[in-house]
Prior knowledge:
Helices cover 53% and strands 12% of the residues. By secondary structure, it is an alpha/beta fold. Strand 4 (214-220) and strand 5 (227-229) form a beta hairpin.
Amino acid sequence: MRLRRIALAAWQLAIGHVAVAAYAVHAAMPDVQTAASQAAMTPAAALDRLKAGNARFVSHAMAAHDWPAAITATAAGQYPFAAVLGCMDSRAPVEIVFDQGLGDVFTVRVAGNVVNADELGSLEYAVSVGAKLIVVLGHTTCGAVKGAIEKAQLGNLTGLLEKIRPAVDQAKCSDAKDDACVTKVARENVLHSMRQIRADSPYLAAALDEHKVKLVGAMYDIASGRVTFLEE
Length: 232
């Protein structure tokens, strides 16, 4: 009996070491995008992943991120599954509101999520290296939108705000103190930027027509944290 107990204890100890080793391997290999996972990703799956991430963010159930391990895992390369053109507003950080980690998403941020040659070049690069989804992300109470409505004048910002003026005209409202008006213009501005992406980049237009990538618009509510995707 004594020998059996010793053997059992030794077996349990060995199993414990295996479990610890397995845990250590898992901890050292965080859930980051790889060439294989990026290649397997579809535009629809990429969109679902962002939706699920925002749902976790809103419900205060965000994934645990081992940032040091992710830094190590992504040091040799990156394989993002999506690219997001968002506003620079400090209250709308893309990776956080979609609960994504290092190496998951290309992020292009500029006041008012406007489109110019630099943003287009960045999005073209993202698609050329495997991103399957482009999101134009606007948000409520956008300062750039308010500035466009009021025709604010401030150095180089003046020209940037002019890019939002078509959305102001389309929304047919002109009160920057009216939250509903600002949101309406911000939504129209997202749609305007989407049209510009297709019209001004033959490369992206071709990728969209060939269904290699999907383009969607979205609005982030800074009061609730919820992202609403716009119907195409």
